């Protein structure tokens, strides 16, 4: 079996296992967090709270987080989804009705996950406790995307990698620009 076939089989097994794995209360909690994260509402709200209550550190962390979300969204939704055009996991793999409410866009990569990871990874270096708190809904968003049948685990992993790269780019750009101009 080739590497791509093995990855596809691992995606199928993990998707089916995660989709069938949660209790109704966990499923409801994951869905509520994902709904808040839809359209980056959650991260914009967290950034507003950080800027309002966190002083200079909060404003710096919020700005870095929102900039990283913007970069991640352009990369994942604006570029990668258009290039990949991967279909969503088959409906028969998902044992609940939430599969009927998923988007029609490409499955690859997970834009929700890329935004969540980008925000959290950009916030954490400036304000570690806030980054640690943001990691909780970030992980919940990532799990929910597979559990709901919207994404394969590889879509979520790639979305997380894009989010990390976006956060690194946003955090590194000022240093790189200053180094270039010196």
From TrEMBL:
GO CC, alphabetical: plasma membrane
Boundaries of every Phosphatidic acid phosphatase type 2/haloperoxidase domain copy: 63-171
Gene3D superfamilies cross-referenced by the UniProt entry: Phosphatidic acid phosphatase type 2/haloperoxidase
Top-level division of the source organism's lineage: Bacteria
Localization annotation: Cell membrane
SMART domains assigned to the protein according to its UniProt record, in alphabetical order: acidPPc (SM00014)
CDD domains per record: PAP2_like
Name of this chain's protein: Phosphatase PAP2 family protein
Bias type Basic and acidic residues, positions: 85-104
Region (Disordered): 85-111
Principal location listed in the UniProt entry: membrane
GO MF annotations in UniProt: hydrolase activity
PANTHER family: DECAPRENYLPHOSPHORYL-5-PHOSPHORIBOSE PHOSPHATASE RV3807C-RELATED, SPHINGOSINE-1-PHOSPHATE PHOSPHOHYDROLASE
Pfam families: PAP2
Key words, A-Z: Cell membrane, Hydrolase, Membrane, Transmembrane, Transmembrane helix
């Amino acid at each position: 079996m080739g590497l791509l076939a093995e990855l596809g089989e691992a995606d199928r097994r993990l998707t089916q296992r995660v989709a069938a794995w949660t209790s109704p209360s966990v499923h409801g909690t994951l869905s509520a967090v994902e709904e808040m994260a839809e359209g980056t509402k959650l991260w914009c709200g967290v950034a507003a709270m950080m800027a309002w209550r966190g002083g200079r550190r909060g404003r710096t962390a919020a700005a870095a987080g929102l900039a990283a979300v913007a970069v991640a969204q352009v990369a994942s939704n604006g570029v990668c989804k258009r290039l990949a055009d991967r279909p969503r996991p088959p409906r028969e793999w998902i044992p609940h009705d939430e599969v009927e409410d998923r988007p029609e866009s490409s499955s690859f990569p997970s834009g929700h996950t890329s935004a969540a990871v980008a925000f959290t990874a950009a916030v954490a270096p400036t304000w570690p406790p806030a980054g640690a708190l943001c990691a909780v809904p970030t992980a919940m968003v990532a799990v929910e995307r597979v559990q709901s049948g919207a994404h394969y685990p590889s879509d979520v992993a790639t979305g997380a990698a894009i989010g990390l790269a976006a956060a690194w780019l946003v955090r590194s750009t000022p240093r790189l620009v200053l180094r270039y101009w010196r």
